[in-house]
């Protein structure tokens, strides 16, 4: 296994992720994941698919033939669970091991890229955003749902916990300013962005929305 593969391998975190997050998936995340798949059509890329939490939301779109779905995940332990989940759910999703910073697809391949709770763990977030722009069609959409850096005393708590949290939770960065990253880059414009306080300190607040590619050529 090369250095990159080792960096992305978190067997313990992969093993506990689904049982630990089951309640919040059911009570909170489900409606946000449903938002990400509204009116999907054409080819879709799911980046950082983890254990496959998004897969059930693609089912009716795949069955109707409205879309096709590819998914990438760098952690081999997460990817194994995602493959099992796709098989159990009987959804036809093309899965492969890859990081968001280096997507194994040609330019302008996808009409929609979906990122759900993934930018907190990406090593080079700006490079990943550039790769998403590259593989999106010019009139495509990047749809996202992420937890982001808080403000005030809550941010202080996040900052204090972050070193230990990153080691324990698969590299999750509590203080990444993902909202600013999405709003400030030259490759995308914000079509929609909403903030929600659906979690508890330190994983709060959340943002969801849509970025549309700009012509940077």
Task: Walk me through this protein's architecture.
The chain is α/β, with parallel strands linked by helices. The chain is 41% helix and 24% strand. Strands 3-2-1-4-5-7-6 form a seven-stranded mixed sheet, with helices on both faces. Helix 5 (125-135) links the parallel strand 4 (110-116) and strand 5. The model is unreliable at 1-5 (pLDDT under 50).
Summarize the topology:
Elements lengths: L2 H5 L3 H26 L5 E6 L7 H10 L2 E6 L3 H14 L3 E4 L13 E7 L8 H11 E12 L4 H17 L9 H7 L3 E9 L9 E8 L4
Parallel strand pairs: 1-2, 1-4, 2-3, 4-5
Antiparallel strand pairs: 5-7, 6-7
User: What is the ordering of alpha helices and beta strands?
Assistant: HHEHEHEEHEHHEE
Write down the domain tally.
1
Mean pLDDT: 93
CATH-defined topology: Rossmann fold
Distance N to C terminus: 37 Å
Q: Tell me the strand percentage band.
A: 15-25%
Structural class: alpha/beta
The top level CATH class name: Alpha Beta
């Amino acid at each position: 296994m090369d250095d990159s593969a080792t960096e992305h391998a978190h067997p313990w975190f992969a093993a506990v992720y689904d049982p630990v997050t089951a309640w919040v998936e059911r009570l909170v995340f489900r409606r946000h994941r449903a938002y990400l798949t509204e009116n999907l059509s054409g080819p879709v890329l799911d980046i950082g698919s983890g254990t496959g939490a998004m897969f059930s939301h693609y089912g009716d779109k795949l069955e109707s033939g409205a879309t096709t779905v590819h998914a990438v995940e760098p952690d081999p332990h997460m990817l194994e669970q995602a493959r099992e989940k796709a098989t159990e759910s009987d959804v036809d999703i093309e899965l492969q091991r890859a990081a968001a910073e280096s997507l194994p697809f040609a330019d302008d391949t996808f009409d929609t890229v979906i990122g759900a709770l993934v930018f907190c763990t990406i090593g080079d977030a700006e490079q990943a955003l550039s790769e998403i722009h590259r593989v999106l069609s010019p009139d495509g959409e990047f749809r996202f749902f992420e937890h982001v850096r808080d403000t005030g005393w809550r941010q202080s708590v996040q900052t204090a916990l972050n070193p230990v949290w990153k080691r324990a939770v698969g590299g999750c960065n509590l203080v990444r300013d993902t909202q600013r990253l999405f709003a400030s880059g030259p490759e995308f414009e914000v079509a929609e962005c909403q903030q929600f306080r659906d979690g508890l300190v330190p994983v709060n607040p959340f943002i969801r929305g849509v970025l549309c590619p700009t012509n940077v050529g």
